[in-house]
Amino acid sequence: GAVVSQHPSRVICKSGTSVKIECRSLDFQATTMFWYRQFPKQSLMLMATSNEGSKATYEQGVEKDKFLINHASLTLSTLTVTSAHPEDSSFYICSARVGGNGYTFGSGTRLTVV
Amino acid sequence: SQQGEEDPQALSIQEGENATMNCSYKTSINNLQWYRQNSGRGLVHLILIRSNEREKHSGRLRVTLDTSKKSSSLLITASRAADTASYFCATDQGAQKLVFGQGTRLTINP
User: Fold this and answer.
1) Which of A3, A15, B23, B92 has the greatest number of beta carbons closer than 10 A?
2) Inter-chain residue contact B30 with A104, CB threshold 8 Å
3) pLDDT-based confidence at A37, cuts 50/70/90?
4) What are phi and psi of A13, to 5 degrees?
5) CA-CA distance, B54 to B67, in Å (whole number)?
6) CB B62 within 8 A of CB B56
7) A74: distance to nearest CA of chain B, Å?
8) Element (DSSP H or E) covering residue B6
9) pLDDT for A87 beyond 80
10) Do the Cβ atoms of B69 and B52 come closer than 8 Å?
11) Would you tell me how many other CB atoms lie within 10 Å of the CB of residue B79?
12) How far apart (Å, rounded) are the C-alpha atoms in residues A67 and B20?
């Protein structure tokens, strides 16, 4: 089936630095990818929708300058957390829509900002 | 709120028993999907039920949908220790977006 590969699975960074998370669609083209954030023992909150070749659409309350999304090709979307702070520590997950009404999810990235 | 509600928030049962989780949502939907998440991992799609369907089965899973009550339930029969995970419902409300419920943490005790 359709697979989204997400890297890195874990990252620890210092406060003030930037971190890039990649999601690649394997064996299929993803014109749209979705980025979610999940705090411990909580649900997934949609942050933004990335569209290949155009600007991402951010959900209300999500800072577009802090969470930079790039979807430069049909198989790659990236999320860059800029000037990371401890409160940005979270689990970030991407997903892509596949045929019909299905979605496939990456394995997630655990970000810890120290 | 973006999200619907699930209950219970946590459920602990003995292996072999059935587990039932409920989900409520707030708006019209195209379909409702259930996902499973093992701790610290991504989501695995379990089953999708369309708005014009009332019940669907897949192996040991049974999903019902009541659009008049805006609610759904997921039943896992003959539970196994490996079913221990968090389960989320998600509604497709159009605009290609999934809205997730709060989730149920299921623990199956051997």
Assistant:
1) B23
2) no
3) very high
4) -135, 160
5) 8
6) yes
7) 17
8) strand B5-7
9) yes
10) no
11) 21
12) 37
Q: Nearest residue of A to residue B33 by CA position?
A: A102
pLDDT category, B3, cuts 50, 70, 90? low
Which are the contacts of B84, defined by CB distance < 8 A and separation ≥ 6? B106, B107, B108
- Determine the distance in angstroms separating the CA of B105 from the nearest CA of chain A, rounded to an integer: 8
The residue among B44, B66, B70 whose CA lies nearest residue B55 is B66
Rg (CA), chain A: 13
Nearest CA in chain B to A32: B96
Q: Please return the burial class of B14, using the count of CB atoms within 10 Å of its CB with bins 0-12, 13-18 and 19+.
A: exposed
**Contact assignment for A45 to B40 by CB distance below 8 Å:** no
Q: Are A37 and A45 in contact (CB under 8 A)?
A: yes
Q: Where are the beta strands (DSSP E) in A3-66?
A: 3-7, 10-13, 19-26, 32-38, 44-51, 57-58
Residue A28's identity, in one-letter code, is: F
Q: What is the pLDDT of residue A59?
A: 93
Which residues have a Cβ under 8 Å from the Cβ of B34 and sit 6 or more positions away?
B23, B46, B47, B48, B61, B63, B72, B74, B87, B88, B89, B90
Mean of the pLDDT values across residues A76-97? Answer: 96
Burial class (CB in 10 A: 0-12, 13-18, 19+), A72: exposed
